[in-house]
Amino acid sequence: MRSTIFACMCGLVLVSCNGVNDAGKNVGLSNIVVSLGYDPLALPSTAYGPGSLVTSVKGSGLRPPLRLTYLCRPDFAKTPSPIVDPAASSVVSSALNRSFQLDASALGQFGLGAHLNSIRSVKVTLNNVTVEQLAYDDLKAVRSELGPKCKELVDEFSQKSLAYQTQQAIRADVVYSFELKSGASSEVKGLAIQALTAAFGGSVQADHGSTVTGKGLFYGLVLTKV
Question: Model-level pTM?
Answer without folding.
Answer: 0.80
